[in-house]
Amino acid sequence: MNDQWTNRLSEYLDGELDSTERASLEAHLATCGHCYATLGELRQVVARAKSLEDSPPANDLWVGIRAGLTTARGADRPAVRPSGRRFSFTVPQLIAASIALVLLSGGSAWLALQRSPNTADRGTVTQPDPNARLAGWTGSTDVAIAELQAALVQNEKRLDSSTVRIVRKNLAIIDRAISEARIALRNDPGNAYLNLHLADTMRRKVELLRRVNDMAAARS
Amino acid sequence: MFATLAAAMLVTLAPQRQSDTSVAVPAGASLSVNNFGGGITVHGWTENRVKVHGETGRRGRVEVSLVGNTVVVKTGSREGAPSVIDLDITVPQSMELNLSGTYADITVDGVQGPISAETVNGEVNVRGGKGNITLHSIQGAVTLADASGRIEVNSVNEDIELTNVSGEIKVETTNGGLTMTGIQSSSVDAGTINGDVVYEGTVKDGGSYSFGSHNGDISVSIPEGANVTVTTATANGDIEACFALPLTSTTGKHRKTFKIGSGSARMELESFQGDIRMCRPQEMRDRIDRKHKRNEHEHEHDNDNDNDHDADTDTSFGWDPGSVSAYATRYAAAYAPKYAAQYAAQYAPRYARQYAKLYSRQFKNTYHLNTH
């Protein structure tokens, strides 16, 4: 893990690095699964943000803002409405970002090392129907969970049978909770609570899998 | 079977080895303990020494060394699989502790420094502690009392209980309940999947409180005069309060917000399947007391120790003189659980150790474990 570069991935995506830094980072990306995975997650969030349509606020705030700007700039200078677009992240986007942080926080070497380039960069997610939107933001976590579970299958032979049994039991409990949350979300896809609850439950599964994998690795 | 039991008892009667080591430590020293199986018990005292008492099997050994500013206690076996070893350690009260085990119960009492305790299969019970306190178990309950600082407590398959704890608190389990009483904190984050969450403590202005469960109820105390914005969300449960709640807003069909006083603190109460209750502290304490008494009562009447209510052990059956075998069967059904539990409690620890040794040796041979 390289914090120096991880913290500069956003600048890389925005094209704000100079050529030397860019070359250095790209060289680093070739050898660092962690940064590569982070970059993939960031690309996904940005791609989703760009794919959103502008939605006007319930009340036209621009009139008041323009009046304020006009006052500040002086009445003789025409107010120009900014053409650049500010990103406004939706709940699912924030969830995706927060789960990415969980996945990529300290100790997630399992994920970073085992993530293949194809799964790290999953490209743009367009604006689909609500169910597809759910699938979109949970997709990256589903992939991470699948990879961690595959790692667990390999690693659980290092753990004693009672621990494996308890872990499986608790994973099943979490799976049931995830399943119930998904069903509820299908009926009410825009519900912020249900989105956040599903995200939090999936995060717990990721953390449990990561913890058990780390524990097994420590015994190798 | 009897031969096995007799052999086990003979082995049990073999003398246990004991070791005692004492190390003088400089101020600011820390303690690091790793014990594969058995127990780690740590007490605080006023002397500047660390005393390590170990009870080992015939092959077990305890190594104590001073590495830099850290007293390192390691356990191992002279040959074969890891031994089951009980460690009783006395340390200066302000000493920082790093305790880890695999099949180990961890108990700490009377220490006023930072504590890190982690086990896989065992309970963690800590009284005292100051600073960073991190307690983890996979399969074992975790309790913390009379501690302050930055608290992180985590289990997977059991309950967590915090009593008279202050500071920044983060508590999480998967299959267990969370009970927090006498809490003094402006930041609490507590969650479980399968269990109830109970909070009785302060709600400080500007504080942040988050309590969540998927399958359990959430019960929190809101002191009179608290200034807090409470956001509740439940998919299938009810929201109740022991006092009048001023509803501020409703978002969708699941989320409701209540502003109490100035609303400066933030509190989130979320349960997918369970109910959400808000009460005054005394009412909450009464509820908790009743729950404890109910648990004790159930435990006393749970003769077979299987956490049910023993409804199937009805002894008021009518005697059928024509069927001796039926009588015997019912007698056994009624009394066997009681005696099984009694004898299990009496002999299980002894046999558990012996079988732990036996099986760990087998596992070692099978998996070629690298031991000390």
Question: What would you say about this model in short?
Answer:
The complex is a heterodimer of chains A (220) and B (372). By secondary structure, chain A is mainly α.
List the helices and strands and how they pair.
The complex is a heterodimer of chains A (220) and B (372).
Chain A: H1 3-6, H2 9-13, H3 19-29, H4 33-51, H5 62-73, H6 91-104, H7 109-114, H8 117-120, H9 130-155, H10 161-187, H11 192-218
Chain B: H1 2-13, E1 17-24, E2 30-45, E3 49-56, E4 60-67, E5 70-77, E6 84-92, E7 96-111, E8 115-119, E9 124-128, E10 130-137, E11 142-154, E12 160-172, E13 178-192, E14 197-201, E15 208-213, E16 218-221, E17 228-234, E18 239-241, E19 247-251, E20 255-260, E21 265-271, E22 276-279, H2 281-301, H3 324-367
Parallel strand pairs in B: 2-5, 2-6, 2-7, 7-8, 7-9, 8-10, 9-11, 10-11, 11-12, 12-13, 13-14, 13-15, 14-16, 15-21, 16-22, 17-21, 18-22
Antiparallel strand pairs in B: 1-3, 3-6, 4-5, 17-20, 19-20
Helix pairs in contact in B: 1-3
Q: Could you walk me through the main structural features you see in this protein, from its secondary elements to its overall organization?
A:
The complex is a heterodimer of chains A (220) and B (372). Chain A is mainly alpha-helical. Chain A contains 11 helices and no strands. Chain A is 70% helix and 0% strand. In chain A, helix 4 packs antiparallel against helix 6 (91-104) and helix 10 (161-187) packs antiparallel against helix 11. Mean pLDDT of chain A is 67; it is low at 53-58, 72-91 and 104-128. Among the domains of chain B are: 17-158, no CATH class; 183-291, no CATH class. In chain B, 40% of the residues are buried. Chain B has a 5-stranded parallel beta barrel with strand order 7-8-10-11-9. Residues 1-14 and 306-327 of chain B have low confidence and may be disordered. The longest helix of chain B is centred in the C-terminal third of the chain and has 44 residues, at 324-367.
